[in-house]
Amino acid sequence: MTSLWRDGRFVRYWASSAVSQFGDRVSEVAVPLVAVTVLDASAGQVAVLTALAWAPNLLALVLGAWVDGRARKRRLLVLMDLVRAVVLLSLPVAHIWGHITLGQLYAVVLLGGLAGVVAGCAWQPLFARIVPRSSYVAANSSFSAARSASFVAGPAVGGGLVQALSAPVAVLADALSFVVSALLLGRAPVDEPAPAARSGTTGLALLRDAREGLLFVLRQPVLRAGLGCTTTINFFTFLAGTGMVVLFADRELRLSPGAIGLTLGIGATGSLLGALTAPWLSRRIGVGRCVAVGAVLFPAPFALAAVAGGPAWAGALLLGAAQFLVGLGVMWFDVPLNSLQAAVTPDALRSRVVGAYSTVNYGIRPLGAVVGGVLATTVGLRTTFVVVAVGGVLSVLWLLPSPVPGIRRLADLDDGPAAERTADTAHGEEGAHAA
């Protein structure tokens, strides 16, 4: 099998993703600091900022249907990079002129999030065009490794840029990363087939197309099990998101800001190791079993964090170990599951399937965060962590009765029950849609 790294198109797409991911880590530090340090935003206003960043995912189902009808998805991806670059660039420009406002900051995260959802829906069909099916796991591992590496170094660089240049000017780094990403994508042409004939272009037709994508996910056994498992894990792990972990480290473990940052950095190294080893584990125990192992290992270490205590160094060590295992489990779950999803999804439905997943999977995250806040207030952070561990581990029950654990290689899908069901479902949906 030819190495992916000898394929110039793959290298450009990977580099595009790596550069923009690193820029995103800078913005994740700088944008909230714009609100807090420049605009003196309250906790409620910061919460609105977070909610607006996630809100566009609720439109992903319809956006995915719209993207599936576009003929040139690479051009759309380039356009979304440029849109995000311009939107982010407005912050340092407004700051220089002394006219930056909270309303502008809200608009930036909302428009940037919207462009990100469209780009995510456009990316999956391109991934399937540039990566051979036999290399899906290796390719997803490479993309996830770049993302994990950005979490190791990006926040530190972001903090340094904010300190040296101010928060609004630091955002310029993310804007430039999208320009570089667009240039790289512009030099990586892909043979894109014309989209399948659609029943119309009206809003009603778009809703029908979106419904078709959602129904395909719910009827296809691998996708249905994956969505149920992922949504359950995300709900429970967002009960104790990064904010709760930081609060726990500060209030319960009495760690210094430097120690908290180091602890979170250790978690990021776990993600990097998980991304790099996911292909190896998938070969050793099978792709489906790797997903199941990750589904357990991802949330379970929160129980370890719940018992952290004693001297500050001991608490930091235990919390760091828990974060490392969480990061390892995330990647052992994500890399093979993303590969399975790509393998069982027909080309004509890829963007709609991504849209359906994003609407449900990301839509549950704000709800989990709200419930986690109520739970932590009423029963305490340690008990909340135990709930996360127990509830998250139970997500594996979605996988056990499905075909997923029995899938050793992606090639098994060519002749197995999942493949037959995929073909039958796609055929039935297309017929119903045409009628």
From TrEMBL:
Its main location: membrane. Pfam families: MFS_3. It is a multi-pass membrane protein. It comes from the Bacteria. InterPro entries: Bacilysin_exporter_BacE_put (IPR022324), MFS_dom (IPR020846), MFS_trans_sf (IPR036259), TM_effector (IPR010290). The keyword Ligase does not apply. The chain crosses the membrane at residues 46-67, 76-97, 103-123, 225-249, 255-278, 290-307, 313-333, 354-375, 381-400. This is Transporter.
